[in-house]
Amino acid sequence: IQLTQSPSFLSASVGDRVTITCRTSQGISGDLAWYRQKPGKAPNLLIYAASTLQSGVPSRFSGSGSGTDFTLTISSLQPEDFATYYCQQLTTFGQGTRLEI
Amino acid sequence: EVQLVETGGGLIRPGGSLRLSCEASGFSVSGKYMSWVRQAPGQGLEWVAVIYGGGTKYYADSVQGRFAISRDNSKNKVYLQMNSLRAEDTAVYYCARDQGQFETLWYFDLWGRGTLVTVSS
């Protein structure tokens, strides 16, 4: 399975609503996760099972999708959200989406 | 505090060997599904290996036959033995805990800070 994220780069401002898409090369169950990775830090689990918010993660993050198309939405960007985001299904990660100010 | 701490990285010549350690605190690695994930400089994430709660092990094709994952429950550690290292193995290596209790869910809910391995002559 291949995971393709779009866009690869995204410019936005604090307070914006943004959506990142992850498309799989074949239909999968809802076993998809999203991570945020701040520069120089380890990834942090945000969403699992496509739409379940990980404990401790702010509610501005949400996930949706099924089949081959999944999305991560950040409802109101905060300064700490400018980072790189990865989707993951089983052993495969997407190539990442870099979110910049 | 629940955390993972990786050690053992460094500079190694091509063809050499290195063993990475991942020490867990705040929980027991016994019965847990534990993975190693790596990230080459400026690149994305690549899963490397997993050890299941029952001890079954799986590897990425890129490291199959060269790397070996293991666990020492008495020391609460997970290891990655890396042999026949290549330049393309240069990366930060992260230890990661699977969220699953009785099966692997492939959701990594706890990561270490990583340890850098540089393979160069």
Describe this entry's structure for a reader:
The complex is a heterodimer of chains A (101) and B (121). Chain A is mainly beta. Chain A is built from no helices and 10 strands. In chain A, the strands form 2 sheets. In chain A, strands 2, 4, 5, 6, 8, 9 and 10 form a 7-stranded mixed beta sheet that branches. Chain A has a 3-stranded antiparallel beta sheet with strand order 1-3-7, with no helix packed on it. Chain A is globular. The termini of chain A are far apart. The mean pLDDT of chain A is 95. Chain B is an all-beta fold and 121 residues long. Chain B has strands spanning 3-7, 10-12, 18-25, 34-39, 45-51, 57-59, 67-72, 77-82, 91-98, 108-111, 115-119. In chain B, strands 2, 4, 5, 6, 9, 10 and 11 form a 7-stranded mixed beta sheet that branches. In chain B, strand 7 and strand 8 (77-82) form a beta hairpin. Chain B is globular. The mean pLDDT of chain B is 96. Classes of the chains: A mainly beta (101), B mainly beta (121).
Q: Give the terminus-to-terminus CA distance of chain B.
A: 39 Å
The fraction of residues assigned to DSSP E strands of chain A is over 45%
By oligomeric state, this entry counts as heterodimer
Would you report the number of β strands of chain A? 10
Order of helices and strands of chain A: EEEEEEEEEE
Mass-distribution shape of chain A: globular
Mean pLDDT of chain B: 96
Mean pLDDT of chain A: 95
Which two chains have the most extensive interface, and how many residues on each?
Answer: A-B, 22 and 17 residues
The value of Rg of chain A in angstroms is 12 Å
Structural class of the helices, strands and pairings of chain A?
mainly beta
Strand content of chain B: over 45%
Silhouette of chain B = globular
Low-confidence stretches of chain A: none
- Share of helix among residues of chain B? under 10%
Q: Biggest sheet of chain B: strands, sense, closure? A: 7 strands, mixed
